[in-house]
Write a structure and sequence with these properties.
The structure holds two protein chains of two kinds. Chain A is mainly alpha-helical. Chain A has one domain: Orthogonal Bundle (ABC transporter involved in vitamin B12 uptake, BtuC). The relative contact order of chain A is 0.21. Chain B has a two-stranded antiparallel ribbon. By secondary structure, chain B is an all-alpha fold. Chain B has a single domain, classed as ABC transporter involved in vitamin B12 uptake, BtuC (Orthogonal Bundle), CATH 1.10.3470. Classes of the chains: A mainly alpha, B mainly alpha. Chains A and B meet through helix 3, helix 4, helix 11 and helix 13 of A and strand 1, helix 7, helix 12 and helix 14 of B.
């Protein structure tokens, strides 16, 4: 019994990485911007946080301050990346796919250079216990949940609430569906796009930070981060553009991903090595199936934002 | 200005308008300025990241010289640059028909990887058992089949149900990766998951190992240029790209054009996969294409979907890549530095397109005086 509980909690904790990533991406996509830079942004979010911890990780500052400063620094680095993206795509109206891919190239590369210069004994060893508050040091399965996991849940629910229950969210969705109409009713399209992209990037960046410092808490963690950035983009489709659904979606993705390493622990399941890649493939296959089904059913509320991927220039007709 | 009564007619500082057309010399000057600015920013970033450079700022000359040294320093480096350029160019060319149709195929990575898988599968099971010539033909056919199949799946759903192709093709890349690792587990039971270089199925060496690949890329460039600009198919692709409704109105079968064009895209990716498999690697990893499928998207877009221009853009990216690799080697820094440098230059080149396509009108003081 305990093994299943461990498995569930581990899936939740692992999934929080993509939960952050896809909540951020949903905000951006709702403003009409398909941000393929998310993997790069998540990487830089991780690097930004770790840079701060590298400075203060072993200092005598109170632990809660270290936790908060790390989060803020990660947020700032990721938002800076979002700013580059939105300047290029919103102000300079560059192609979103190309900009996003360039941002990913840049972000992943820069993170690797930065992380190779930091010392894990400083940024990792002490802080990782702080981030697991209040469950640090426990022996049961709860030990892998911490501050940032709950922060992620909070952000996902709050993002859904803002998007679908407030006027700001209504305006944002209007911008993503049809910027010309939104512009005509007096919504500041540029400001909404900028804010949504930067806030979204910040949230996604926290996912990268969470993965490195909390979930994996290892010095090699950053090398595998990029793949989870792409998985976050997949999760957006899986969640049909609803942030709160990413909580369930990310748990399923986390489950499938950790399945492959976990399943060997179960004595009654006989699996060959060959099954592992197939299990890891499932999140992507499920995403494709969801994408296909939602396009066949063609329900309006489950479609990608109408103007996703298109630049807005007021004088274009 | 206390008594201004028409505050609501405030003019913004900058007003934008789309240029009807830009003369080529102006476009190229803007791009060149962007490239130079990008390189300067790279220098500044390198200053922060590279310790050796900070200790001895005089080495900044070596830093910039490395971009030339990396690709033109020795004949070997030059050939390597041309080979890498050709592979990148082939993938970019493969993407272009789809892009001209505004079908955002970002699945070249997966389609090419499937091409490699097709060729290697044939090589693995039949290598040495049948004549070498026949083996190569079968490898090519398998690569074409796998590549086009990977492109056809999203195309059919796009044509039939208008399923978002960007997201679909993106996901197909990852499915392809895991298909490859599945086969690796089957082929290499030891668990090391690295397939030793196969003995058979090597592309014949003319002049050197790279020459055939370079020739194929050249032929493909010219062929695709003619196909897109002077054939009926090419015309249909442009019309569908401009407006699906116009295409329907003039009697073009849009679904057929979508499926046919994506099939072509996939076939060319498969061909590239064959070149990688038989001409270079003769083995396969999940990283056989090495992200070039994504870089190719930028190559094609930067060239404005013009096959001839892609020779220039893929060359630029390749020179930057090898230059940056040279820097990593000379200055002893992390191997990820090329990505940072290419990323920065790309930002500038992507951004400069704005100044080519749009005109800025600054608010003039004289206008304001006249308005009073």
């Amino acid at each position: 019994m305990n093994i299943w509980l461990n498995f569930l909690v581990d899936s939740l904790a692992f999934g929080a990485t993509f939960m952050y990533g896809s909540t951020g991406e949903i905000l951006t996509e709702k403003a009409g911007h398909l941000n393929l830079g998310i993997p790069g942004i998540m990487c830089m979010g991780g690097a930004g946080g770790c840079m701060m911890l590298n400075l203060i990780g072993t200092s005598s500052l109170p632990p809660f301050l270290i936790v908060i400063l790390g989060i803020l620094s990660s947020l700032a680095a990721a938002m800076l990346m979002g700013l580059i993206y939105s300047f290029l795509t919103v102000t300079l109206r560059a192609n979103q796919n190309v900009t996003g891919l360039a941002l990913t190239t840049f972000g992943v590369g820069l993170m690797k250079v930065i992380m190779s210069k930091l010392s894990p004994t400083v940024y990792l060893v002490m802080p990782k216990a702080y981030y697991r508050w209040p469950f640090a040091g426990r022996q049961d399965s709860l030990q892998c949940l911490g501050v940032m996991f709950f922060l992620g849940l909070l952000i996902a629910v709050a993002a859904s609430w803002v998007l679908y229950r407030t006027k700001v969210g209504l305006h944002l969705r209007a911008v993503g569906e049809n910027p010309a109409t939104a512009d005509a009713v007096g919504i500041n399209v540029t400001r909404y796009k900028y804010v949504a992209t930067c806030v979204g990037s910040g949230i996604a960046g926290l996912g990268g930070f969470y993965y490195i410092i909390d979930y994996m808490a290892s010095q090699e963690a950053y090398l595998s981060l990029e793949a989870f950035g792409w998985l976050s983009i997949a999760l957006v489709i899986f969640a049909l553009w609803r942030p709160h659904r990413t909580i369930i979606g990310s748990t399923i993705f986390g489950f499938l991903f950790s399945c492959s390493s976990f399943i060997t622990n179960l004595s009654f399941v006989q699996v060959t090595m060959a099954a592992k890649p197939l299990l890891k493939m499932l999140p992507y296959v499920f995403t494709i199936i969801v994408l296909i089904i939602s396009s066949i059913r063609n329900k309006r509320e489950n479609q990608p934002p109408e103007s996703l991927g298109l630049a807005y220039f007021r004088e274009n007709r | 200005m206390a008594g201004t009564h028409n505050a609501e007619t405030r003019e913004p500082l900058v007003h934008l308008s789309r240029r009807a057309s830009t003369p080529a010399w102006r476009a190229w000057t803007i791009r060149l300025i962007a490239l130079v600015l990008g390189l300067l920013v790279c220098g500044a970033v390198a200053f922060i990241l590279i310790d050796k450079l900070r200790d001895d700022p005089g080495k900044i000359g070596d830093f910039f010289y490395a971009f030339i040294k990396g690709s033109f320093g020795t004949p070997r480096k030059l050939w390597k640059m041309l080979k890498n350029l050709s592979i990148l160019l082939c993938i970019a060319l493969a993407l272009t028909p789809a892009f001209r149709m505004r079908f955002w195929n970002i699945g070249a990575e997966g389609q090419t990887l499937m091409g490699v898988l097709g060729a290697i599968t044939v090589d693995f099971y039949l290598g040495g058992k049948i004549p070498e010539g026949l083996l190569l033909v079968l490898m090519l056919l398998a690569a074409l089949l796998y590549g086009s199949l990977w492109a056809l799946i999203p195309a059919i759903f796009k044509a039939k149900w208008n399923t978002n192709e960007t997201l679909f093709t993106l996901m197909m890349n990852y499915v392809a990766t895991f298909v490859v690792s599945y086969f690796l587990v089957i082929w290499v039971p030891s668990g090391s998951s690295s397939l030793a270089k196969l003995k058979y199925g090597k592309l014949p060496s003319v002049v050197n190992d790279y020459f055939v690949i370079i020739m194929v890329a050249l032929a493909l460039t010219v062929g695709l240029y003619v196909y897109l600009n002077y054939s009926k198919h090419g015309y249909e692709i442009s019309v569908v790209g401009e407006s699906v409704n116009t295409a329907k109105y003039v009697g073009i079968n849009v679904k057929r054009v979508i499926i046919r064009t994506m099939m072509l895209s996939g076939l060319l990716c498969g061909l590239t996969g064959f070149l990688i498999a038989s001409g270079l690697d003769r083995t396969i990893t999940t990283d056989s294409v090495g992200g070039q499928g994504f870089t190719a998207i930028m190559v094609s877009w930067l060239a404005n979907f013009d096959p001839l221009m892609m020779v220039v853009t893929s060359g630029l990216i390749q020179i930057l890549n090898q230059g940056a690799a040279q820097i990593s080697q000379d200055f002893n820094v992390s191997g990820a530095l090329p990505d940072v440098i290419v990323g920065i230059i790309l930002f500038f080149i992507i951004g400069c397109e704005f100044f080519i396509n749009y005109q800025l009108h600054f608010r003039h003081h004289s206008n304001r005086e006249a308005a009073k």
